[in-house]
Amino acid sequence: MRPEGSDRRAHMNCYECRKESSVATSAEAVCQRCGAAVCADHLRVEKQELHQQAGLGKRVQDQPGRRMLCTVCERAERSG
Question: Taking the C-alpha atoms of 27, 49, 79 and 30 in order, what is their torsion angle to the nearest 10 degrees?
């Protein structure tokens, strides 16, 4: 039995903050590329076109989606 008022949600800390300074900073998101939990300072949010199969071709959705990356994966993608 859980103690009263306990929270079942998992808490994740930013991987980059922990690696750089051993400080535990709450994560805001998970990198879609590598899966690392990252805080707001290490998070990059980009717009992403969403494609849908439409008959013999593809259709781009009217509204863009979003893509969340850590700073390491963002730098790696831009370097290539």
Answer: 10
**CA 14, CA 50: separation in Å to the nearest integer?**
28
Which tokens hold the place of 37? 């939990």
Please give the pLDDT value at position 22. 84
Whether 29 and 43 have beta carbons less than 8 Å apart is answered as: yes
Residue with tokens 């980059």: 16
* Amino acid letter, 52: Q
Residue 72 phi, psi (nearest 5): -65, -50
Mean of all residue pLDDT scores within the chain: 84
d(CA 44, CA 28): 11
